[in-house]
Amino acid sequence: MQRISKISEALSGSNLRLCRRSLSQLAQTQSTPVDDDARLPKMPPFDYTPPPYTGPSAAGILKMRQDYLSPALFHLYSKPLNIVDGKMQYLFDENGRRYLDAFGGIATVCCGHCHPDVVEAVVNQTKRLQHSTILYLNHAIAEFAEALASKMPGDLKVVFFTNSGTEANELAMMIARLYTGCHDIISLRNAYHGNAAGTMGATAQCNYKFNVVQSGVHHALNPDQYRGVFGSDGLKYARDVQDLIDYGTCGNVAAFLAEAIQGVGGILELAPGYLPAVYSTIRKAGGLCIADEVQAGFARTGSHFWGFEAHGVVPDIVTMAKGIANGVPIGAVVTTPEIAKALTHRTYFNTFGGNPVSTASGLAVLRVIEKERLQENAHAVGSYLKDRLTSLKEKHEIIGDVRGRGLMLGVELVTDRQLKTPAKAEIIHVMDKMKEMGVLIGKGGFYGNVFRITPPLCFTKEDAGRFPSGCDGLHNFKDVKKKGGWMDGWMEIITSSP
Question: pTM of the predicted model, to two decimals?
Fold first, then answer.
C-alpha cells in the first residue's frame, strides 16, 4: 500500500514525466524484474525475437522525413514510433520493444505481419518473375482473378486490378459513367473513398477535400445510427436519395457508392434496411450500385466475407484494396461481364495492376483466410471484444458509443453523453498512454474522437481479453496491477487529461 501511495503521488506535479517514463519501462516485455505492485501487465508469451536493428534512429528518420518527404505527411503520437519489425499481431520498435497491433496498418494487415505463407509466395514469385506486363500471359494474375471471383455473389466475376483503393474507386466510378451514359453519382456524407480527382468528389469530409473541381457527385444524408437524425431507421434516411435524384439530377444517375461500414468516418455501420432501399431506388433511376469494400472486405467483419453481405444486397460493382494482399500494394474492381464491356470501347491499361508479385500475395491471402479460418476467428474474437467494450460503455460516461462488427470496431469518446460532445483532446492523450502501455490503436471519425480497432485477423481472444480488461474502478492506480488488462489505465488516463 505504501508503494501504491507513492506511485499515486507521482502522477501529479513535477514527478509526472518521471512516472510516465517508469510506466513505459514497466510495460516492456524485456524489462528486468520489478516489484509486482508497480508492474504493468505483461504481454502474452510469443515465440519470436526480432534481429537487432542497426538503422537510423527515430529522431534521424524524423529529420529525413522533414527534409525530403512531403510536409503533408503526419505521424501519430507526440513521440513518433520507429517500427522496424512485425510478426503476426505484433510490431517491434528500434529497441526491440513489442507492441500489440490493434490497428493493422489501417485495416490493411489481414493475415498477420509477415505471415510465413504470404512471405513465401512473394519471395518465390519475386525470384521467378518480378514484373513483365499484362500484354504477356502469366499464371499469377489469372489464378488470383479466378480465386477472387469465386468469393463474389451473383454474376460478379470480371476483375480489373489496380494499385490502390483510391484507384479502384476511380475506375469503378468511370465504368459506371461509361456504362450508364450518366454523370451524376451519389455517395454519403461522412464518406471517404480516396484522394484523387473523382474520389475526392465522392468523399464527403472537409478534412480530406481540397479546393479543386469536384463535379457530378451528390452527398446523401448519412444513415448514422449514433448521431443521425433518424437513429437506426434506415428507410427514413433512404428517402433522401430519392430527393437528390428528383431535385439534383435529370432523373437518372450513374451510380451510388458507399461502404457498408464507414472506416475513416469512424467505423459507422449503415442503418438496417438502408442499402436494400437505396439500391432499389438507384436501379430505378438507371444507376449502378458500387460497394466500397476497401476496409470492410476480406473477412474482416467476421459474419460475412464482404461487408455488403450483412445487408442482404448484391452490388453491380465491388471495389477492394488494403487487406487484399496483406500490405502489398494492390487494389481491384470486380463487376459483371456485361458492365465490364464498357471499357472495351477505348484502350484501358494499367502498368502495375495485376503485377505478378502482388497477385501472388493476394492469392496467398485468400488461401490463408480459408486454411486458418480467419473469418470465423474475426467473428468470434470480434464479438467477444465488442461485448467487453460495451460493458465498459455501461459504466463509464466518456464512452459514448461502441459499434462495428468482427474485427472492425469503433469506440467513440464524448465529454457529454447527452450533447455527444467529441472528446478530441482526451483521445489523443489516451492514445499516447496506450502506446506507452504497449498497445497501438487508430482514431478516426469526422471529429477525430473515435478509436478505430482493426487488428490483423489472427488477433486472439487472449489479446482481446487483455485489451479492455478490468476498466472498473480505474480512478485508482492500484487497479492496473489487480485487473491485468491493456485498457486498465483508460479511465484514469482520461480523467487526468488536460
Answer: 0.88
